[in-house]
Amino acid sequence: MTVPDRPSRMLAPSRRAQLSLFASNFFKHPRMLGSIIPSSPFLVRRLLAPVDWARARVVVEYGPGVGTITREILARLAPDATLLALETNPEFVAYLGESLPDPRLQLVAGSAETIQAELSRLGLPPADYILAGIPFSTMPAACRERILGDSHAALADDGAMLIYQFSPKVGGDLRRLFSRVEKGFEPLNILPAHLYTCRR
Ligand SMILES: C[S@@+](CC[C@H](N)C(=O)[O-])C[C@H]1O[C@@H](n2cnc3c(N)ncnc32)[C@H](O)[C@@H]1O
Question: Ligand 1 test: best mutation among 19, 72, 87, most atoms within 8 Å of CB?
C-alpha cells in the first residue's frame, strides 16, 4: 500500500503560507482587506468569465493580495500580454515578487490611484481589462471617485472593468460612470460577493 505524502485534507505549504499571511494582514488592516481569507475559486471563476483571453493584451489588477486571482490570470494570459498589478500592502508585494517570477507580471508597490502614471511609465496602451477587488465602499469618497474615473479613462474603448465587492454600495457610482453595467452575485465566498462588469 502506498502512503500519500500528506493526507488530502491538509493544505500544501504554499497555500498555508498564503492563508496565514492574508489572515495576519487582515488583523492589521481589516478595512483594506475586507475579508479574512482570499477569494474562493467560485468567485475567481465568475470574475474572470467575461474575459476574452485571445484579445487581452493589457490586463490590470488592483489589490492582488497573495496572488489568488493573479495566478489564474497568468495561467490564461497570452505569452506576449502584460499583467500590471498594483498593491498597497508591502508584505503582499514582497510575497508576490518572490512567489510569482513571471516576465508578463509588472508588480507595482502602490495604489490603484497611480494607474494612468504606471501605464504610461511602462509604455503600455489603454487596458483591455481592469480587475478590482479593492474596498471601494470603505475608502474616502474622493479616493473612490478618483480611482473609478481614472480607471474609466485608462480603459480601451472596447475594454471592461470587472469588479467584486462585499457591499453593493459602489453600484451607483459605476452606473453613473459607465455606459453599461452588468451585475452578478457569488454566494460561495467568504464573504458573498457582488460582481460588476462595466463597459465604457
Ligand atoms: C479583498 S483583498 C483581495 C485580495 C485578492 N485580490 C483576493 O481576491 O484574494 C483587497 C486587496 O486590495 C489591496 N488594496 C486596498 N486598497 C488598495 C488600493 N487603493 N490600491 C491597490 N491595492 C489596494 C489590499 O491590500 C488587499 O490586498
Answer: 87
Would residue 18 count as lying in a domain? no
Does ligand 1 lie within 6 Å of residue 67's CB atom?
Answer: no
Q: Whose CA is nearest to atom 8 of ligand 1?
A: 39
> Would residue 26 count as lying in a domain?
no
Domain membership flag for residue 17:
no
Query: Does any domain span residue 2?
Result: no
Task: Report residue 159 as a C-alpha cell.
Answer: 475594454
How many domains is the chain built from? 1
Residue 121: give the domain boundaries. 38-199
What is the grid cell recorded at 199?
Answer: 463597459
Is residue 142 within 8 Å of residue 114, measured between CB atoms?
no
Count Cβ atoms within 10 A of the Cβ of residue 162 and give its class: 0-12 exposed, 13-18 middle, 19 or more buried. buried
How does pLDDT run along the chain (200 residues), one tens digit per residue? 444 444 445 667 698 999 999 999 999 999 888 889 999 999 999 999 999 999 999 999 999 999 999 999 999 999 999 999 999 999 999 999 999 999 999 999 999 999 999 999 999 999 999 999 999 999 999 999 999 999 999 999 999 999 999 999 999 999 999 999 999 999 999 999 999 999 99
- Dist. CA 178 → ligand 1 center (Å): 22
Beta bridge partners of 129: 59, 160
Q: How far is the CA of 65 from the centre of ligand 1 (A)?
A: 5
CATH of the domain at 116: 3.40.50.150
